[in-house]
Amino acid sequence: GPGLNKYAQAAGLKYFGSATDNPELTDQPYIAILSNTNEFGQITPGNSMKWDATEPTQNTFTFSGGDAILNLAKGNGQILRAHNLVWYSQLPSWVTSGSWTNATLTAAMTNHISNVAGHYKGEVYCWDAVNEPFNDDGTFRTDVFYNTIGQSYIATALQAARKADPNAKLYINDYNIEGPGAKSTAMINLVTSLKAQGVPIDGIGVQGHLIVGELPSGIEQNLAAFAALGVEVAITELDIRMTLPSTPALLAQQQKDYQTVVAACKAVSACVGITIWDYTDKYSWVPATFSGQGAACPWDANLGIKAAYNGILAGF
Ligand code: XIL
After folding, report:
1. Pocket flag, ligand 1, residue 205 (CB < 6 Å)
2. Where is the active site (predicted)?
3. Which atom of ligand 1 lies closest to the CA of 288?
4. Following DSSP, what letter does each residue of 205-271 receive, concatenated?
């Protein structure tokens, strides 16, 4: 195609990117497209920098999976969004079923952050330092970190990440914050309070796991409200799924929906980039997660471009 990253950069964004995952790295035709910097200027590791992958037993770190994806990106001349440091999901059982006090879990969490972000120091564009801290109603998710440490785990995590890699931009990343609503308001309140306390926070990541024909209204205004806090904004995990089987009508609506999201980011100067949560239906996480749904990506399972691809170009 003409090039998603080329169009994004011509429109003033820093990058258009894709997630990828280690099992896919042996698929040569897949890698050829992923490595084309006309299409992708940025890569996110879909799994291999998460806590269960990097610290499966306490204080024993494995970086081989994450390193493989960083090396691919570096070899291609692409930047890397590192994902993630603190999240309720994909935690090893020693974290979820440990008997913690505030002090011992704070120590384990900051040790995780200083080792993982320290290993990648100077190599990554940003970290999703805290992932998915909110419930959909805007209350804090009651995971092991919140329950043991309280809301301050977020500030502590950000401070530890800044110390470990002073040049990485630090994001809080969440889903269902594409449009205005209780969860977006909660994000605004959190970032406002972090900034007031002098806690390092550089960006709000808007995941963008959306449904064809069901985009929230007010995406552009919502991104602008985030940007008004003095942080950058990124669409970090975009995919737009449908109930299978796909039809020409659904694929046409999907094209429009991709265009809408891209145009909203383009319209907000602090929206620095857009990442799709893998570029092809061949490797999308959607069918395994949302039963009966799929076809969420701009490339089909045979690595052919879909109408959605043209929707992205049109959005720029
Ligand atoms: C997903 C991966 O794509 C899957 O392979 C894995 O089984 C589960 O996690 N929000 C996030 C991502 O922040 O880390 C998730 O990635 C998708 C939802």
Report:
1. no
2. 237
3. 7
4. EE--EEETT-PPS-HHHHHHHHHTTT-EEEEEEEEEEEESSP-HHHHHHHHHHHHHHHHHHHHSTTE
Backbone phi, then psi, for 203, in 5-degree steps? -155, 155
Ligand 1 centroid vs 240 CA: distance in angstroms?
15
Q: What is the DSSP letter of 26?
A: G
- Which atom of ligand 1 has the smallest separation from the CA of 83? 14
- For atom 15 of ligand 1, which residue has the closest CA? 46
Q: Ligand 1: does its nearest atom lie under 6 Å from the Cβ of 18?
A: no
| Distance, C-alpha 239 to centroid of its chain | 11
Phi, psi of 172 (to 5 degrees): -105, 130
Which run of H or of E encompasses 286?
helix 286-289
Which residues are catalytically annotated? 237
What are the E-state strand segments in 105-160? Answer: 126-131
Q: Would the pLDDT of 1 be above 90? A: no
The proportion of the chain whose per-residue pLDDT surpasses 70, expressed as a percent, equals: 100
Is the pLDDT at 18 greater than 90? The verdict is: yes
Mean local confidence (pLDDT), 173-194 = 98
- At a CB cut-off of 8 Å and minimum separation 6, what does 249 contact? none
pLDDT band at 170; cut points 50, 70, 90? very high
Tokens 């552009």 belong to residue: 220
Is residue 285 in contact with ligand 1, taking CB distance under 6 Å?
yes
Region 76-94: what's the mean pLDDT?
98
Cis peptide before 115 (omega within 30 of 0): no
Contacts of 119 (CB under 8 A, 6+ apart): 61, 63, 66
DSSP string, 40-67: -SEEEESSTTSHHHH-SBTTB---HHHH
